[in-house]
Amino acid sequence: MTGLLAQALNGVQYGLLLFLISSGLTLIFGVMGVINLAHGSLFMVGAYIAYAVVTATGSLWVALPCAVVGGIVVGAALERVLFRRFYKRDHLDQVLLTFALILLFEEARSMLLGNDFHSVATPAALAVSVPMLGGFSYSAYRLAVLVACLLVAAAMFLVIERTRVGSAIRAAAEKPEMVDLLGLDASRIHMLVFAVGTALAMLAGALAAPLQSVYPNMGDGFLIISFVVVVVGGVGSVAGAFWGALLIGLVDTMAKAYLPFASGLAVYAIMAAVLLWRPTGLFARA
Predict the structure, then answer these.
(1) Which domain covers residue 267, as residue numbers?
(2) How many structural domains does the chain have?
(3) Within 13 Å, how many C-alpha atoms sit on residue 263's CB side?
(4) What is the pLDDT of residues 79-129, one digit of tens each?
(5) Are 267 and 228 in contact (CB under 8 A)?
(6) With 0-12 CB in 10 A as exposed, 13-18 as middle and 19+ as buried, what is 277?
């Protein structure tokens, strides 16, 4: 039971990190119709920002806002300079653009920080274990990541469901043809969505940095699993990304712990079943 509880908490924490990445991915595709293969590279950039800032200042608390601000700036710049020119182009052109960005991010990372594996220290206040049920203890930092992701998710739901900006984003994601009819500035919505999506990916990378090594191409695996989350949850649905990420995070973690021979199969079997049964996603509108 102790091991099961630990794996369940690991699965929820992993799923919530996936939500930060996949929510931006699903919004960008739902609102702008752009397949952003470079989203995983942005996650990697966030992790390297955490490594660089923690190395310079010794504080992850400084690195986290740096990753968020950096994500907003990078996302707005990418949308304004590059992606705005590709909205009406074929998806193949978008894929080629984002693949080129992956190569550029990797080359820049190699030139600036090298190709070594790096570790990021956990904040001293959270480098402890928290006693839980039955004498079981769990990492304080992992719990902090779990809570932080839940707070970000709650803030996203409040903004999207309770504000005029959120209404405009939902309109653009669910019925993009209505944006112009309602007199909304689509270019501002696009820039906002891309900047927020990029900031979420970089924040996820910075939060994940102390949990694993920071290394080249570390975003590739997260990109693939995030696409699975988007397919399972439903394109353009933030709620779908949340529940889909929790489902995939728990299944992936449990399968790796108890069915290692079928760990990869379990996740992709779920995706295949969803595509066959409900192609729009489990939590999207039919």
Answers:
(1) 2-277
(2) 1
(3) 13
(4) 998 888 887 788 788 889 999 999 999 999 999 888 889 989 888 888 888
(5) yes
(6) exposed
